[in-house]
Amino acid sequence: MVGRRKFAAASVLAGLGGFPLAAAAAELTVITNQGATPGVREVAAAFARTSGHKVTVVQEAGPELDKRLASGGGADLITSNPGPIAEMVKRGQVVADTVTPFALASLGVSVRAGAPKPDISTIEAYKAALLAAKSIGYSRGCSGTNAAWGIEQLGLTERLKPKTVLTDGGPVVEFLAKGDFELGIQQTNIMVGAPGTDYVGAPPGFLNKPCPSSIALMTGSKAPEAARALIKFIVSPEAAPLLRKTFVEPAQP
Description:
By secondary structure, the chain is of the alpha/beta class. It is 39% helix and 22% strand. The two termini are 25 Å apart.
């Protein structure tokens, strides 16, 4: 296993040879959505090591993000789900022809640490687990929307509504660890290894509707060439193992 990891790391560094060192180092700021943050940090670190550019990754959402965008962004790149990115294009906050899908994050299910793990291996088993849970929590973001969609496909929306908790202001696993609910659903890459929780697995079949993330150049970027180079790298074959390391799949082959 160690040998494989060393080989993978060497392959990444070798592949980065196609991204030459910058004549003058730029300082890039990337604003990320919660689900994309782990993968973006991995890719940004590799890009910084080989390009000579400094890359700062900042996770922001809600009022803080709205305030930043209203003031002009103060960043070079932004990642988000397709809907919010499309709205930013309409408002002239990002450059339309730079919008690039780069990651797909599957849904996952977790319970509090030490709690029995339900069987969710089949659609019927997943349905039974949802009905048996005393309480269920998911977010108002993409993963929550997709979790709710799956529940609707099972015909359980009204039956589960009284015991469903919608979270705000942090990952679902943080609320799950505190005991705010018994079963949590969110993106796998946020859930795996979260303190105070145990990861169960992904919903079965078509119910595992992934959340896509795209990256785009912000119109106020002070280093657009370096920012475009990072976009190019994040969808390169060399970046794929870095994304997979954080439990997401590259959006492009």
